[in-house]
């Protein structure tokens, strides 16, 4: 246990390794030093206490971070220092602008407060509101962290040997720590619940996408799988359910996709984007929606979802791309009826963190048709039943672990549970194969020919 705060310097590293390509390391460097604290409106005693809890919580890595409530896996709030290196696109931009535009779901006033009080620092120092970022700057945020809930269902093991672990990832769980998910990511659930150490994430799936997820058990194996993915030696097959009757035959979309960095990250067809190729084939049509098999030949962010939107057949419950925010045609053929800046403003409004806060009363009382149908789906299949391990007493909510921090943005607001539509999407990674191996899952219930509750 760390009790002296003045010269404590600890480097801690999770035993889950993440690809450099997909995410910066989740290793966290904790350096606590009173000399960094420079006044302003800073409550030094309070920050010290935060640092103390932070250091203690990291020392106690065997602690169970989870509890189960309403069929959801929830994480007790905790103190956390998040460390990020200045990215190329941030150089010469004010810190406040970068965090407001790209990094955080909080309002600008909250970011201002975090900079002024030293919650957000550059190279360990408290900086002015007009601080401009430089190459090699390291930004740290010391926060009382709250995570969003995910389904409390198990990640079924599809295959395991000495080299790899392959699981069927449920919808709602991100692959690795990001945004408002850390312990509630597939990588850390395997580490903290299943006590599986030294796993390497080899590829990613969107948070709402379910299906095949391959972890390597060594860096050599991880590199080998990466190389196969980079050389496009891995054949990937996905299933999705889209709006309307998808055309017959094999349809190939080869429109380049550009990733737009914003609070709500999206990919849009753009001539200046990266080469992106997806092959689609309709498997069935039930009078309202079609099951489509998708084979992405490139691996761009949101590739299948963005290409389906462009073709005019968005995934039926894709809360991001199946939306009139993109215009009356929902972005078909890239027609937006507004400029990109207005689109991003409108997307942020629709996907604000307030969706999960108790502020929006209608969020609690309005159940959309999509949500009702997803509830029916969950009750009609066993894919999303509660993970039996989570029924034990150790996962019962312990109110004494619900720490509270008076200056924390989230502590000041009341959370309500996310709606099913924010936890589920009909896109499933069914099979990954090379000429040496092949891993596949069961076909989801919503992909059967006669499924017709949507
Ligand atoms: Zn809090």
TrEMBL record:
<dbReference type="Pfam" id="PF00849">
    <property type="entry name" value="PseudoU_synth_2"/>
</dbReference>
<feature type="active site">
    <location>
        <position position="206"/>
    </location>
</feature>
<keyword id="KW-0413">Isomerase</keyword>
<keyword id="KW-0694">RNA-binding</keyword>
<dbReference type="GO" id="GO:0000455">
    <property type="term" value="P:enzyme-directed rRNA pseudouridine synthesis"/>
</dbReference>
<dbReference type="InterPro" id="IPR020103">
    <property type="entry name" value="PsdUridine_synth_cat_dom_sf"/>
</dbReference>
<dbReference type="InterPro" id="IPR006145">
    <property type="entry name" value="PsdUridine_synth_RsuA/RluA"/>
</dbReference>
<comment type="function">
    <text>Responsible for synthesis of pseudouridine from uracil.</text>
</comment>
<dbReference type="GO" id="GO:0003723">
    <property type="term" value="F:RNA binding"/>
</dbReference>
<protein>
    <recommendedName>
        <fullName>Pseudouridine synthase</fullName>
        <ecNumber>5.4.99.-</ecNumber>
    </recommendedName>
</protein>
<dbReference type="InterPro" id="IPR006225">
    <property type="entry name" value="PsdUridine_synth_RluC/D"/>
</dbReference>
<comment type="similarity">
    <text>Belongs to the pseudouridine synthase RluA family.</text>
</comment>
<dbReference type="InterPro" id="IPR050188">
    <property type="entry name" value="RluA_PseudoU_synthase"/>
</dbReference>
<feature type="domain" description="Pseudouridine synthase RsuA/RluA-like">
    <location>
        <begin position="163"/>
        <end position="309"/>
    </location>
</feature>
<dbReference type="GO" id="GO:0009982">
    <property type="term" value="F:pseudouridine synthase activity"/>
</dbReference>
């Amino acid at each position: 246990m760390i009790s002296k705060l003045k010269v404590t310097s600890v480097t801690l590293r999770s035993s889950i390794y993440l690809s450099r390509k997909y995410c910066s390391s989740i290793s966290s460097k904790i350096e606590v030093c009173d000399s960094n604290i420079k006044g302003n409106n800073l409550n030094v005693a309070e920050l010290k206490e935060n640092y103390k809890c932070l250091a203690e919580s990291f020392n106690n890595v065997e602690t169970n971070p989870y509890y189960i409530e309403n069929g959801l896996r929830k994480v007790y709030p905790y103190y956390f220092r998040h460390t990020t290196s200045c990215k190329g696109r941030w150089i010469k931009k004010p810190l406040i602008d970068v965090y407001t535009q790209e990094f955080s779901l909080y309002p600008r006033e909250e970011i201002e407060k975090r900079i002024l009080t030293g919650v957000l620092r550059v190279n360990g120092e408290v900086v002015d509101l007009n601080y401009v970022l430089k190459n090699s700057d390291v930004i740290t945020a010391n926060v009382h962290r709250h995570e969003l809930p995910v389904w409390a269902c198990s990640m079924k093991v599809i295959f395991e040997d000495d080299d790899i672990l392959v699981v069927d990832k449920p919808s709602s769980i991100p692959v690795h720590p990001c945004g408002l998910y850390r312990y509630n990511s597939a990588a850390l659930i395997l580490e903290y619940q299943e006590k599986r150490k030294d796993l390497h994430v080899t590829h990613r799936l969107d948070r709402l996408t379910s299906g095949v997820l391959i972890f390597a058990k060594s860096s050599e194996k991880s590199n080998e799988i990466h190389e196969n993915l980079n050389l496009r030696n891995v054949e990937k097959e996905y299933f999705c359910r889209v709006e309307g009757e998808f055309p017959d035959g094999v349809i190939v979309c080869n429109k380049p996709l550009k990733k737009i960095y914003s609070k709500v990250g999206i990919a849009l067809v753009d001539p200046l984007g990266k080469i992106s190729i997806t092959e689609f084939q309709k498997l069935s049509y039930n009078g309202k929606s079609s099951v489509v098999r998708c084979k992405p030949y490139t691996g761009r962010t949101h590739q299948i979802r963005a290409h389906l939107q462009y073709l005019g057949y968005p995934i039926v419950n894709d809360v991001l791309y199946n939306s009139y925010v993109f215009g009356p045609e929902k972005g078909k053929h890239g027609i937006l009826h507004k400029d990109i800046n207005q689109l991003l403003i409108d997307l942020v409004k629709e996907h604000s963190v307030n969706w999960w806060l108790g502020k929006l009363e209608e969020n609690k009382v309005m159940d959309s048709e999509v949500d009702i149908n997803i509830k029916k789906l969950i009750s009609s299949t066993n894919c999303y039943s509660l993970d039996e391990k989570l029924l034990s007493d150790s996962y019962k909510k312990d109110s004494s672990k619900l720490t509270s921090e008076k200056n924390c943005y989230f502590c000041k607001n009341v959370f309500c549970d996310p709606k099913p539509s924010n936890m589920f999407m009909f896109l499933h990674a069914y099979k990954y194969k090379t000429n040496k191996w092949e891993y596949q899952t069961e076909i989801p219930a919503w992909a059967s020919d006669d499924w017709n509750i949507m």
